[in-house]
From TrEMBL:
The lineage of its organism: Bacteria, Pseudomonadati, Pseudomonadota, Alphaproteobacteria, Emcibacterales. Gene3D superfamilies: Winged helix-like DNA-binding domain superfamily/Winged helix DNA-binding domain. One of its GO terms (molecular function) is DNA binding. It comes from the Bacteria. This is LuxR C-terminal-related transcriptional regulator. It comes from Govanella unica. GO terms for biological process: regulation of DNA-templated transcription. The keyword DNA-binding applies. The keyword DNA-binding applies.
Length: 228
């Protein structure tokens, strides 16, 4: 069963956690996101990162990200740090040299927030060369913060986000919009949340409706999340 979230609750939490993290550990930029039960990432909130950063990540580089939640789902770690030992993998090298380094943020740390041992949200923290890599002390501070953040997130969301069936064939951006629709956000609220124009949202929704074989938002929720 799908229950609509208070559309401001995840936004308020993301702003609070992004600010809190910044008080603990200095970063060049940071991003909060949610994760559905198929380990698809959606509902991104950025701090000191350009929308172009997120667009490039979603359109191409997410599939190469070694710290993506889908690649850490079976691990118990609360924190993961991108380091030189991972560069033996060519996909990771491509991610670092083509995505992180051109944006002058070669250092990345990921925080995973769980519900019943499943990752339901996370934070990406990135740093420039001037700040240097994340230290073991900073990692320990963030690990101590995770249980409290998980407790707060559970109280706000109430349950993990449902997933979008793979057979629908939605893009990463379309999946994100579907999740926001099912959370009860209007088209204008989706515009503000994602930093895109209203006609763009409407175009995405038209394509989503076509792929799902529906004509309304209500039918979309029923089709995707109730299996009919």
């Amino acid at each position: 069963m799908v229950t609509a979230l208070d559309c401001n609750a995840p936004l308020d939490f993301s702003q609070a956690i992004l600010g809190f993290i910044g008080d603990i550990v200095p970063t060049t930029g940071r991003c909060f996101y949610r994760v559905d039960d198929r380990m698809q990432v959606f509902d991104h909130h950025l701090f000191n990162l350009a929308q172009e950063w997120l667009t490039a990540y979603q359109d191409h580089y997410c599939e190469f990200d070694p710290l993506h939640p889908s690649r850490c789902a079976d691990k118990e770690a609360k924190i993961a740090i991108l380091n030189d030992s991972m560069t033996s993998d060519r996909h990771t090298r491509n991610y670092m040299t083509s995505f992180l380094m051109p944006q002058e943020t070669p250092y990345q740390l990921e925080v995973y927030l769980r519900h019943d041992r499943r990752i339901v949200a996370g934070l990406s923290l990135v740093r420039g060369v001037d700040m240097g890599p994340f230290s073991l002390t900073e990692r320990a501070l963030l690990e101590r913060m995770v249980p409290f953040a998980e407790f707060c997130l559970d109280r706000i969301l109430g349950h993990p986000a449902p997933s979008v069936p793979d057979e629908i064939g939605l893009t990463e951006r379309e999946r994100e919009i579907v999740q926001l629709v099912c959370a009860g956000l209007s088209n204008k609220e989706i515009c503000r949340r994602l930093g895109i124009e209203l006609p763009t949202v409407k175009t995405h929704l038209s394509r989503i409706f076509g792929k799902a074989g529906v004509q309304t938002r209500t039918a979309l929720v029923h089709r995707l999340y109730r299996g009919n």
